[in-house]
Amino acid sequence: MIILDDYELTSIKPGILIMRVGDEELKIRIYPIPIHVIKSGENYSVQVNAVVSVDTNQPKFGEPCNPQNLVFHRGIVPKEVNVVEKPEVEISVEGKRINVYLETTNLTVYPDLRDSGGSPCTMISWSLFQTVK
Length: 133
Description:
Layout lengths: L1 E3 L3 E6 L1 E7 L2 E17 L2 E14 L6 E2 L2 H4 L10 E5 L2 E6 L2 E19 L5 E13 L1
């Protein structure tokens, strides 16, 4: 297994999710950021971190969004999530093109907890898929 550091980031397409929680409309953007490209034999694997940004149409104050507060608050799973765009990264390495896609698997919103911009705290899980051409 070799960690390759000579790769080119061709494109990043942020994922966009829109949903309603109560009377709030939320727009979530997920930016996939590649960390490592690993080669094992002829196979490639990309490790990705995601930066998540949440915007609301009704910003307000609330308890800070931090892991200690999550234990004491109940999260809400949105009934409908409109996936406008899926997060995607394209990387070029050793003459190959690797496309990485993130698929949201779990989404929980904590309306009582707020970030510094007044948007609700959101926890998102995803699975990573990739194709090599």
